[in-house]
Structures are given as C-alpha cells and as structure tokens.
Amino acid sequence: MGIPYSRQINAAFEQVTPLVAAGFKVLRTTRDISILLAVIQVLTVILLGFILLALVLLLYCVNPDLEEERKAIATPWLRYFASITIWSIFKTLFSTLVVMGLAAAATWHFFVAKQWVEDVEYDANVDADKALSDLEGEGEIEGSGNGGKKGKGKGKK
After folding, report:
1. DSSP notation for 34-60
2. pTM value?
3. What residues contact 60, with CB distance under 8 A and at least 6 apart?
4. Helix (H) or strand (E) holding 118
C-alpha cells in the first residue's frame, strides 16, 4: 500500500535534487563574488585615504601661512623619503615578495582544499546514484508492473 507513495516521493526527489545542486553552485559563486567585492572596497578606501593625505600635505606645502606646520609635518616625511636607498628598496621588495608568496600559498591551499571537497561531494553523489539505481533495479526484479517505467506510463519509448 505504501509503494505508490514511495514512487511519487522518489519522483519528486529526482526532480528537486538537480535544483538543489544548482542552487548550491549559485550560492558558492555568490560567496566568491562577495569576497572579491569586499576586497575591492577595502582597497578603494585605502587608496582614497592616501589621496586625501597627499592633498592635505600639498595644502601644507603650498600655503605660506602654514610654514611652521609644514616644517613640523611635511618636512620629516620628505626627509624620510629622501633617505631611501637602493638597499632598503631591495629589502622591502624581498620581504614583500615573501609575504605575497605566503599569501599566495595560503590562497592556493584554500582553493585546492575547496576542489578536494568538490571531488568528495562528486564521489558521494556518484555512490548515491549507484545505490539508488541498485535499489530501483531490485524493485524491477520483484515486479513493478509497468516494465521499469517511472510515472504513469506517458513517457517516451
């Protein structure tokens, strides 16, 4: 007595499963896009802060009424930039490359781990499909009555 209902449940499950998988892919893509947008927004704020700082320093340098403030604020920074040597540039580039390499390695590991999870999910889906087909095959042996067709027999031959 419960067999027709279980067939209807299986048919409904088979219709819903691809929709859930597609929704999961959309959510994953949306997450990646939102992370990228957040990084872009942070970089925009940082660059706008640097532009504002440069404009304020330009104001101090150009205005003759702010001579004392220029000597107290702008001159030390200009002396610092004038003291930069080739060796300090190489040290900075090397340390930046090391940090960026570590960040790239961490990002690569994150995406490899993400791919590993997708592979495991794929293997699990293949195993689940095989188990479902085995269960359907056992039901046909017992005699389902419609020759192994699903539904009400209105499908293609």
Report:
1. HHHHHHHHHHHHHHHHHHHHHHHHHHH
2. 0.41
3. 66, 69, 70, 73, 74
4. helix 86-142
